[in-house]
Specification:
The chain is α/β, with parallel strands linked by helices. The protein is built from eight helices and 13 strands. β10 and β11 form a beta hairpin. It is elongated and about 55 Å long. The site of calcium ion has 5 residues, from β4. Calcium ion (CA) binds next to β4.
């Protein structure tokens, strides 16, 4: 089931959207503040975000701009309170994938959401570029400055996980989840070993260790 993060402080509207999208087969995590939205988006559990602009602790537009600066790539549908052209332009400039002016039909929200999720899925299947490094899911290949680098299946899975969310720290256990199948036995230092090998192949400084937290990929 596809999980959506909904950020909306109006209770009636929030409940309506949760129910409406629920009927369309989405699982909706509803939050009401920027702080909760930040936490929700960082969980990595969602396929997309529906974001209100006027929130109790600030503007959804500011949060969206912050997300995009940090490389957060989830598709975002903005809910604009007023039918102001300036809001819409600012929204699209901040990195919204689409917007919907209140009041709106739940069926329209659902259709718009479906469209941005579909577009995002198309993007996700294409190559990811981090500086000189290219990770191609379709070809299951890693290229550095245009030259293909041979990596194992598990090294590829780790690199793929890290490059999906550039700059974002993934913990050892999150990476273990990506390289081991369900109920497969996990070797205790496997992630470290794979990271070590990957660094030897793509350059030490492309994968940063964040002490006590995990690893992240950085552009070089
Ligand atoms: Ca609001």
């Amino acid at each position: 089931m596809m999980r959506i993060l909904l950020v909306e402080d109006d209770e009636v509207l929030r409940d309506g959207i949760v129910a409406g999208l629920g009927l369309d087969g989405y699982e909706v995590d509803a939050v009401t503040t920027l702080a909760e939205a930040r936490e929700g988006a960082a969980s990595g559990d969602h396929a997309g975000i529906v974001l209100d602009i006027g929130l109790p602790d600030g503007s959804g537009l500011d949060l969206l701009a912050e997300w995009r600066r940090s490389g957060m790539k989830l598709p975002v549908l903005l809910l604009t309170a007023r039918n102001l052209v300036s809001d819409r332009i600012e929204g699209l400039d901040s990195g919204a994938d689409d917007y919907l002016g209140k009041p709106f039909d739940l069926s329209e929200l659902s259709a718009r959401l479906r469209a941005i999720l579909r577009r995002a899925a198309g993007r996700a299947s294409s190559d990811i570029e981090i500086g000189e490094l290219v990770v191609s899911e379709a070809r299951r290949a890693v290229l550095l400055s245009g030259k293909e680098i041979a990596v194992s299946r598990r090294e590829f899975a780790i690199l793929r996980a890290l490059t999906e969310r550039p700059g974002h720290v993934l913990s050892r256990s999150q990476l273990e989840d990506r390289i081991y199948g369900w109920q497969e036995e996990v070797e205790s230092n496997a992630v470290e070993v794979h990271i070590h090998k990957l660094r030897a192949k793509i350059g030490r400084d492309r994968i940063e260790t964040v002490r006590g937290e995990g690893y992240r990929i950085v552009a070089r």
